[in-house]
Amino acid sequence: MTDARDRMRRIVRGGLALVAVAAIYEAVARSGLFPAVLLPPLPVVAHTLVASFADGTMPLHALYTLKRVLIGCGLAVMVGLPLGILMGRYRPVEGFVLPLASALMPIPSLAWVPVFILWFGLGDQVAILIVFYAALFPMLLNAWSGVRSVNPLWLRAASAMGADGNALFWKVMVPAASPFIITGLRQAFLRSWIAVVGAEMLAASDWGLGWVIFDAKEFLNADVMLASLAVIGAIGFAFERLVFGSVERATVLRWGMVRAVKG
Amino acid sequence: MHDALASSSATAVSLPATGGADAGWRAIARTAFPFIVAGAAWEIVAHLGIFPPRLFPPLEQVAATFVRLTLTGALPHHALDTMIRLVVGFALAAIVGVAIGIAMGRSRLAEDIALPLVSIVAPIPGIAYAPLFLLWFGLGNVSAVLLVGFVSGFPIIFNTWTGVKAVKEIWVRSAQAMGADQRRMFAKVILPGALPYILTGLRLGLAQAWRILVGVEMLAAVPWGLGWLIFGAREFLATDVMLAGIAVIAIMGLALEKLVFQRLEHFTVVRWGMMT
What is the rounded distance in angstroms from the CA atom of residue A51 to the CA atom of residue B256? Predict the structure, then answer.
């Protein structure tokens, strides 16, 4: 069996499965077994999706959500990355931060939502802080393990060749730790994407994809929910594939670092 | 995989240092030191009165609330209900997820059909499905458990699938050559071979279930549960109750990781020499 035929078969079967599931859903939705508000037919969902894009509300919601994610995630990277690198380099920093991080890590970020609501009121700050909390630990721990995993032979070879501290850091340590750091960025984004939706649902703020879904529940607008779910999935997918995929291609894949890590 | 790696390396610090009781005490002191510093900082801020004490209670008040709620039985009841939801939802996900994953790994037809479906549904954050589940299954336990199961199922499916496909071809062939039938092939070769991946999947799934459960409890208006305890306390500005609840959540999360998964891993894959 050739690769091309294999792929064809895969696509055909996968497509057929999707069509079958959509047809079953459509049949159940139209059979009237369940109220149409709870189980809207797919054309209705598609129409809602198009309409919300046409009047500009959906892109605006998405922008608000993205803004919160990017600010929170950016803060987490600015704190987590240097701190993780310091932890990897200096034992006292590691000894101080690691126990705290291990104690805070198992607390789901959403558990902090009510506390943050009390402290900062409803709105942007809560969502951004929750995103920060969710993204911080993956970033921190991956930067830490990345720096620790640098092959000591490379460090010795570089210093034998006369690299000073600065060059050692930028030319050896950072590239060597980069697969971990990129994994950390990926995980941090993934976590924040989950956290932001939850935070927006709980800390109602008028704008944001999580808020749309939750608000739609009050009015039994299952079509709005499904449409927003599609948008959330699409944005998450796009970030994962396009942004992180290209970052990875431009750095660690080109340097030939990833094969060694992923085995 | 990196998730598991991060969590296992994070636990390395609590390993007792070798070299007698003295070194053991020093290790404990070293671990406790950051908590003492953080606690002292919290106390100072709380007692300076910059923030109203209702919103920023001193630690002794949180501890008193913790003891009071434990003695009245409210806190154990909340924790127990959360635990039951977690166990039921996760068990559902483990059974269904491993079954789907193995089917996908063993049969090409199952793989071709299930993979596109799973790949479309999985990347959407689990909590985003919560309102939909609430709409379909109503407020309360059914929605919460189903959502936890639904969300934690995906890492289990993906890892089981990868694990079954990663079983070395040469093991399968040599077992075949030695005359293993289908059933023994599965029980003695495929399952043990895929187990490290399956365990990683279960671990990721449990972590996922744990993260989502607290949020779901806040949304689903269940009568008991730690998420609800924290969220409900907001109405009364009872920050001490919230922090006591969060402390219980942290303890339960740590216990899950240390007691359940590290042991399970130790008893199976490490003992068989498949992971070190």
Answer: 46
Per the prediction, chain B carries an average pLDDT of 82
- In angstroms, the Cα distances linking A140 to A101, A180, A211, B5 are 9, 10, 29, 13
Q: What is the pLDDT of residues B21-36, one digit of tens each?
A: 778 888 888 888 888 8
Tell if the CB–CB gap between B34 and A99 is shorter than 8 Å: yes
Q: Are B144 and B131 in contact (CB under 8 A)?
A: no
Predicted ipTM of the assembly: 0.78
* pLDDT reported for residue B14: 43
Q: Which amino acid, one-letter code, is at A98?
A: L
Cα dihedral sign for A22, A27, A28, A30? positive
pLDDT at residue B2 is higher than 60: no
**Chain B partners of A210 at a C-beta cutoff of 8 Å?**
127-128
Q: How confident is the model at residue B47 (pLDDT cuts 50, 70, 90)?
A: confident
Environment class of A198 (CB within 10 Å of its CB; exposed 0-12, middle 13-18, buried 19+): buried
A113, B218 contact by CB (below 8 A):
yes
Tell me, yes or no, if B256 comes closer than 8 A to chain A by beta carbon.
yes
Check A233 against B55: CB less than 8 A apart: no
CA distance B199 to chain A (A): 18
Percent of chain B surpassing pLDDT 70? 89
Measured between CA atoms, the residue of chain B closest to residue A21 is B117
Alpha-carbon gap, residue B90 to B183, rounded angstroms: 27
C-alpha to C-alpha distance for A81 and A173, rounded to whole angstroms = 13
Instruction: Determine the residue of chain B that is closest to A7 in CA distance.
Output: B112
- Closest in B11, B129, B214 to A108, CB measured: B214
Give per-residue burial for A200-223: e unless 16+ CB within 10 Å, then b.
Answer: bbbbebebbbbbbbbbbbeeebbb
Coil, helix or strand for B108? helix
Q: Which of the four pLDDT bands, split at 50, 70 and 90, describes residue A240?
A: confident
CA B202 to chain centroid, in Å, comes to 9
Q: Cβ B129–A229 below 8 Å, yes or no? A: yes
Measured between beta carbons, the chain B residues lying within 8 angstroms of A107 are 246, 249-250, 253
Nearest CB to B10 within list A96, A98, A214? A98
Q: Is B123 on the interface with A (CB under 8 A)?
A: yes
* The 3-state secondary structure of B197-210, one letter per residue: HHHHHHHHHHHHHH
B11 confidence band (pLDDT: 50, 70, 90):
very low
Nearest by CB to residue A98, choosing from B2, B13, B230, is B13
